[in-house]
TrEMBL record:
The keyword Membrane applies. Residues 598-793 form the Histidine kinase domain. InterPro entries: HATPase_C_sf, HATPase_dom, His_kinase_dom, PAC, PAS, PAS-assoc_C, PAS-like_dom_sf, PAS_fold_3. This is Oxygen sensor histidine kinase NreB. Residues 1-19 form the signal peptide.
Amino acid sequence: MVSFLLRCCCLLLTLTVPAVEASTVPLSDAQQEWLAAHQQWRVGVVMAPPYAEYDQRQRRLSGFHVQYMERLAVSLGINLQWHRYVNDTDLDEAMRANEIDLAPGLRQTREGLRIWRYSDPFLRVPRLIIGDINGPRAIDLERLDSNDVIALEGPGAVADYMSSNYPSQPVLEVGSQFEALRQLLEARVRFAVVDEPLYGRLSQRAEYASLDVVGDLGNPLLLRIGSRRDSPVMSAVIDQALRNFPARDFSQLQEQWLKSRSIDQSRRISYWRSLSLLLSLLLAATVAMLVWQRRQQGLLESRLKSARRDIEARAAAEEAQRLTQFCLDHSTVGILWLNWDSHVRYANQAAVELLGYASDNLLDQPLQALEPGMSMDDWMQLWRDARSGVEDHQIYECEWQRADGSRFPAAVTLSFLRLGSKEYLVLFLADITERRRASAALQESEVRLKAMAGNVPGLVFRLERQDVGAPVNIAYISEASQRLVGYSADLLLQPGRGIRSLVHPDDEPGYWSSQQQALDSMSDWYWQGRILTRSGEIRWADIRASVRGQLEGRQVWDGIVWDITDNKRIELELDASRAQLRKLAAHVETVREEEKAHIAREVHDELGQMLTVLKLEISMCEISFAELDPGLAARLQGMKRLIAQLFQQVRDVATALRPPILDAGIASAIDWQARRFEERTGIACLVEVPECPPQLGNAKAVGLFRILQEALTNVMRHANAQTVSLTLQQHGDMLCLSISDDGQGFVVQQGRQGASFGLVGMQERAQMLGGSLQLESQPGEGTLIHVSVPLDDSPAEPVALISTLEN
């Protein structure tokens, strides 16, 4: 009977509650097409309560990951096919064998990046430190002594985190978190590290009542959804679905599966469920009566909406008609509609004012009265051409006559119009009196411009080309050419002469290349080089020309040739000075690195030997006197721990000054720095270096390593990235290092200035090594730094051309 009532309630709820839409996640058109073609997704899951478990009674999967993926599938309108696995290794093998498409609850690992495409973290699972309930209520890992052993699952991320951050803390690695708690119950260890959901379930058992939480490890477990690496669209769809997952539903899933619940609370939930079922049965009759009423109301509302849409469409059409009529009547261009007999059938206000007629008098006027030069035969030919569609729009200029007999020049545009069975020739009339005045003024302005160009302290010229691909001709050269190069303008305008005859023979390839590039791309022209005057003197010239498009496809380049000999001499002297400063900076950096290496060796060797001797002396004192005085033994132990910490600090200082791994080559140094970066930040770092890297000088190896350190520091501080890729390759005689991340990126601005000189320092260091640095970044698309360094030991020096000017 109870099951029958439950089925009735479910049926009534199905009738009353609106169905969930097949897709509630906003997707692009391309993503929706892909999703429509991939409705079946194969999901792999590792059986680990409370994230995933199999209910033998109901014969179905349950758990946090299962319900979370099922709700994502409902929001995307897809079907899931589940595959169960025992551990993560079997799950990875299934992905390599193409048996599954995605898997929830994965941890991002360096090896996993090669087979999975990870989503953003959707669950942050704290790792708790468990101790005895009668022990300390809160602990600090840095203040525990050597007797406080911590049991944890290992090897793995937790064990690596402890070894890198608390190397002096004794740790017992066991096979599972259950075993870690067992070691704590049997008093073999002082503390244990377990995940919060697992402890939430185990804390309800009587055997774990003597345990309690004493701290947080500070290294939470970030769970992600892994998908196929060859399907970026699936990964993008999953990320969009994760961002649109309701926060309230996610909190309910956490409370259901990942939070601890007392027995009283479970009983209270069962009580309210029973009460809700009873209320549902009582309201079933009322809901059934409301169903029919809602359906009828929906039909009435749909009909009402349809009627409203029809009324709105009719009103919009009438409004468009009124707006069209208003635009015609108030247009600034005169509009005339003429019948086949050349009589006016419609004239707007602009035409009435332009021709000087009253509105009623202009109607039925023949075209011959408005345009005296138009005969009836010309009109009939014009009508036939427009009616047959010889030209869609005909434009001509002529003299028109006003009502008072005065005439004015007009531009007339013709267009043929059919309205049902009626035909009209539409004339668009414009007064061009001002345009002709402007044309005359333009001609006068050209005369003045030529006079002004002759007085400019430079050579003004114009290049013209009739069409794309046609040869270019020099159309104008100002008279200032006589002062600049000693040749008259008439002489330079002769065939075979022009500006190209003035270019120095050594600079002709660059001149032709820049000019041809400007012609091909129809862009502005810029060139700097040497020219020869009539007396044979070498001068430096700057040519700048801007392109302008003309009618009928003609292109024009207007430009000027400046004499920049004095400026060029100053520029070359400044380049030589900068080269000397960069060389000095490189020498100072080399001396600095050598001094760092010397200090590192002194610290490591001398101070290390002294600490070793001190440790041996303390050990001898411990052997001789520890048994006589327990207090002295404790002090000697403390001194040994301090010496061990000092040993580590000495190694850290020596490594910071100059890592010894640089002696093994730049490839080994890059791999070592990547591992240290992963341990310190938790960001996955992929390294690709050649098996036999080319030999690199000590100065360049140190400089390239310092650039890598600065780039990784910027990633750690600002990028908010999940993955960093380091690639070392040889291209010809250049060694290239690429550093890319998938972080938030930024807008690259030329000439950035500020309190931070990280990027400027990296660029200057690359230039001191004779190489270059390129930076590419966009917001939301990560950052790429590409460094190229020559393999030879001598960086390229700028060529000084001052002697050329002096000659």
